[in-house]
Amino acid sequence: MKILAVGDLVGENGVEKLKRTLPNLQEAENIDFTIINGENAAGGMGMTSKIYNELNRLNIDVITMGNHTWGKKDIFTFIEDKKIIRPANYSKGCPGKGYVIINKNGKKIAVVNLIGRTDMGVLSDNPFTCIDDIINTINVDIIILDFHAEATAEKIAMGYYVDGRITAMFGTHTHVQTADEKILEKGTGYITDIGMTGPEKSVIGMNIEASLKRFVTSLPEKYKLAEGKCVLNGIIFEIDDSTNKVKKLYRINV
User: Fold this and answer.
1) 103: Cβ–Cβ under 8 A, 6 or more apart, which residues?
2) Domain ranges of the chain
């Protein structure tokens, strides 16, 4: 089985890039299961029902979110849909769910979404104890984790923490694809961040001039989405059907 995870969609141009690129990519790579992080899809923050409906027309199995889950009020109209998940370690009582189990190609696949606690600006429960609870609760063949976190150290720590207990983990949020994809000692496929799907000439998807003004002057300049050519970043996990472990993984940059 081949599982594709696509990095954070950034703005409507990122969504259009996905719509143009994903079908051909899935066909060329013989993809069986697709995960998309969509928390920045609408104007760089959140997701609207219009964009969610557009994504539903594509062959996408799960959409994960992050710190901008509640960025658009539309989210409350579809957050309970079976295809979309938000961080499982959000406070109890939040709408939506933190993981989903899907039957695909004879396998029970769980996709889990967690959010980090270092420099995220979001109050959340402990992601490490949360993943323990989920692993101990579910009975599936494959577990894939999207850990939406700022600190590379927190992501790396999580990778070692779940090694051998889940099939694969990929990081999202920083929008910069890291070159550290590997199979960890106990068999879990891992990468710190899979990057983004959005404007290539940008500061993590945002307009360069507006971003520079914030850094140079320290004034609260409003972020604006960048324009122009877009890139699609992601990773493919190739999983051995007999062991349900990753036998190969490689980054995607289109």
Assistant:
1) 109
2) 2-253
| Residue 162, both tokens | 């779940």
SS3 annotation, 142-209: EEEEEEECCCHHHHHHHHHHHCCCCCEEEEECCCCCCCCCEECCCCCEEECCCCEEEECCCECCECHH
- Whether 81 and 56 have beta carbons less than 8 Å apart is answered as no
Return d(Cα 36, Cα 14) in angstroms, integer: 12
pTM: 0.96
Fold (CATH) for 2-253: Purple Acid Phosphatase; chain A, domain 2 (3.60.21)
Q: Rounded to an integer, what distance in angstroms lies between the CA atom of residue 133 and that of residue 73?
A: 30
Q: Amino acid identity of 49?
A: S
pLDDT, position 49: 97
Q: Which residues does the annotation mark as catalytic?
A: 68
Q: Which residues face 100 on adjacent strands?
A: 111
- Contact criterion met (CB below 8 Å) for 141 and 173: no
Give me 18's structure tokens.
């996905």
Reading the block at residue 219, the tokens are 């004034």
Does the pLDDT of residue 33 top 90, yes or no?
yes
| pLDDT score, position 122 | 86
Q: Residue 13: pLDDT above 90?
A: yes
